[in-house]
Amino acid sequence: MKSQGSSSDKNCKVSFRKKLLIIDSNLEVKDVERLKFLCIGLVPNKKLEKSSSASDVFEHLLAEDLLSEGDSFFLAELLYIIGQKKLLQYLNYTKEEVEQLLPIKGKISLFRNLLYELSQSIDSENLKEMIFLLNDSLPKTEMTSLSFLALLEKQDKIDEDNLTCLEDLCKVVVPKLLRNIEKYKREKAAQLVTPPVDKEAELLCQGEEELVSQTDIKTFLEALPQEESWQNKHARSNVGTYVQDESGPQRPLCHCQQPQLYLPEGQTRNP
């Protein structure tokens, strides 16, 4: 039995790795650069620098426990961000499912997302102008917008709390990108004001609370004995030996509540 279980586990791992290879074969060089950039801070830089393919990045994610057969969401998040949504099927996710889970399970920081968004809006001409403005402090190497931003971060010119250098560049070269930076600042400030919560635990609690629905509560309340109205109480004390109660069958009145009969003079009541 043990050997069968072990063989099944190996087959599952091989099958999972086959899916990773399929994803790798559908990614281009620019996609690999994007993956590496988004993984900065989560995977050691030295490992990322040596990665030349998506499969290399996947291997590092597996080693860092950021990716497994049982939990492949981080890779799904990466593919979603870089616009490779069609590949989510190999991880058994849909675009809608990833969008729903991002606020709960997402690992990419606001800062990393900001830099990635900016890189997608900095064209080759913008990049040349930015490099020109910082020429004295940059190495004489060919760069992409992603590698340029990564270099600024590596040189401590920018970080999540200091975007002055980037703002100055955008003011001169691409003023419209200042809106992205302002949006990032607002979202970051909101994060600081709102205390962190365990989003997965919160979602679980909400699910447990919903085990008793509003319909169930209404049905339960309707089944409870209803309080007798004052009209019924008044009627019971004045009319008939029996009274029909809204909440049950007829009940005899007690002796003190029996109605009194008044007969004409000279007439007696039959025994």
From TrEMBL:
PROSITE patterns: DED. Residues 15-93, 110-183 form the DED domain. InterPro entries: CASP10_DED2 (IPR035701), DEATH-like_dom_sf (IPR011029), DED_dom (IPR001875). One of its GO terms (biological process) is regulation of apoptotic process. Coiled coil: none annotated. The keyword DNA-binding does not apply. The keyword Nucleotide-binding does not apply. This is Caspase 10. It comes from Rhinopithecus bieti.
